[in-house]
Amino acid sequence: MVGTEAATTPAIRVAVGSAEYDRASAVLEAAREAAADVRVVETGPTGAAALAPVMLATADGRTAVHADVSPDRARELVETLDDGELPTDDAHAVVESDEGVPMPETGPLAAGQRRVLARCGWAAPAALDESLAERARDDPDDLREGVAGAGLLGRGRGDGHTDESIAEGWETARESDGEAVVVVNGNESDPAVDGDRLLLESRPAEVLDGALAVAAAVEATDVVVYLNEDDELAARRVREAVESVDAGGTEIDVVAGPDRYIAGEMTMALEAMEGADRLEARLRPPGPSEVGLYGRPTVVHTPRTLAQIRAFVAAPDEFETSAADPGTRLLTVTGDGVAGPATVELATDTALTEAVADGEEYKMACVGGRFGGITRSLDVPASAPALTGARLGTEGGVELFDGATCALEFAGARAKFAREANCGRCVPCREGSKQLVELLRDVYDGQFQPNELRELSRVVAESSTCEFGQAAPRPVTTAIDTFEREIAAHAEGRCPSGVCMETN
Asked: Of 118, 135, 395, 436, which has the highest C-beta tally within 10 A?
């Protein structure tokens, strides 16, 4: 059954997410104890961890955003609203809004826009104003044709069609033998990328509704939500959402996989769901759309992709279908000078600079998660073609690093992670990552061989079986190209950043 949200005013909303969970839960309890007539709603996180615990007070079309709220302060805010007055004293922001988390002029909630994120922090996680899956069940042809015409691309590591048209995979799954299944791949263990976890904690009903719409479009009989075993809050809220949505006869299962980076790769996710003791990437072709979970045609989408699909179904006129990457992208900004992780939403024609708050200075940025590209400038549009053309990643992370960060040490740390975390199935990734580490170590011994590093990186990227190995060399090659003089200085016995020569 579809849940709907009650009237919006007056109301107190307490954003409870895995960040500051205990403190936010205490604030929620205090607010409920103090409330007489005011409605108190437990919502999911807003995406702005630096503000947590966040409380939103709404009355007469205005919303006051309060950050870092204590239980005592929560009681005061509730009592003020109960007395008929909007509590604005010491508010982080006061905005004309009663339909979604407001966007103030400054702070982590001011960046980009809030289309997919509109209800994150505003509505109860299991609430669903309208089931778009019901529309899809009534007219699946319309959804298939609309998505194909819009040219929607898959989003995030672990999607079955990352940065590619999702419509082709849908058609393949429909035409392949066997009963199709839709997998929601929500197992993202990259600490620099939080978009999927945010959606699962804050808007699980919408993610499920999107998955059920896809199931209708590809004539799938099952939806499987695959989570990280450590994401307990997301798992609880997804299970609550399963009870609230209208599945229309589609079976929904919720399963967990290991908290390992490789477990989020599309085919290794399928291995984990099938109970494999050892996770290894599957050879392709055939891809999961033909032979996936237990041999069935499988459509694999991340929560971010499903959120875009749902946004398109809800308001197709808002999508610029002539764009190479229509819609928006979620980006999590972390790193030096960032008060707390902030997941923001940018239109794909908007530069990444819009995701960074005023005053946040940096020497370099890593764009694209664990194996993102190194850059000095964020003046690059958020679209997949633009990011790929700039040799940056599209996985949804923007990490900022100040002058105390050494480019060589950073590249070496990412190469070591590739060496230690790869599945070991293919030689280029398994052996190539070892050789990358050794060539980077040689720099400290006076041997900087940039051409050898570039060639090895090219071979690993072009020959590896899965996205892990294909992306693993990117931090190394982009660091060399962006900071070649700094790296070369290490071969002469000095670190321009002054941080690593004594420890390597």
From this structure: 395
Question: CB neighbours (10 Å) of residue 373?
Answer: 24
Instruction: Please give the radius of gyration of the chain, using alpha carbons only, rounded to the nearest integer.
Output: 23
Compute the distance between CA of residue 118 and CA of residue 47 in angstroms, rounded to an integer.
11
β partners of residue 192: none
Residues 426, 396, 287, CA angle at the centre, nearest 5°?
Answer: 40
> How confident is the model at residue 359, as a pLDDT?
65
Instruction: For residue 329, list its beta bridge partners.
Output: 346
Helix (H, G, I), strand (E, B) or coil at 495: coil
Whether 416 and 408 have beta carbons less than 8 Å apart is answered as: no
Q: How crowded is the C-beta side of 395, counted as CA atoms within 13 Å?
A: 29
Length of the chain: 504
Checking if the pLDDT of 174 tops 90, the result is: yes
> Could you tell me which residues come within 8 angstroms of residue 484 by beta carbon, excluding any fewer than 6 positions away?
450
Question: Which of 296, 279, 280 has its CA nearest to residue 288?
Answer: 296
Residue 9, amino acid: T
CATH 3.40.50.11540 for domain 132-317: yes
The answer as to CATH 1.20.1440.230 being correct for domain 407-491 is yes
Task: Give the dihedral of Cα atoms 262, 263, 269, 273; nearest 10 deg.
Answer: 150
Domain boundaries, the chain: 11-96, 132-317, 407-491
Q: Residue 367: enclosing H or E segment and its boundaries? A: strand 364-367
CB-based contact 47:121 (threshold 8 Å): yes
Q: Give the β-pairing of 298-301 and 364-367.
A: unpaired
- Quote the DSSP letter at residue 292: -
Average pLDDT, the chain: 93
pLDDT tens per residue, range 262-284: 999 999 999 999 999 899 999 99
Tell me how far the alpha carbon of residue 69 is from its chain's centroid.
26
The closest of 364, 370, 367, 369 to 355, measured between CA atoms, is: 367
Contact 477, 454 (CB under 8 A): yes
Taking the mean position of all CA atoms in its chain, how far away is CA 371?
A: 15
Fold (CATH) for 11-96: Glutaredoxin (3.40.30)
Is the bond into 450 cis (omega within 30 degrees of 0)? Answer: no
CA dist 162 and 154 (Å) reads 4
Specify the amino acid at residue 406.
C
Please state the pTM of the whole predicted model.
0.95
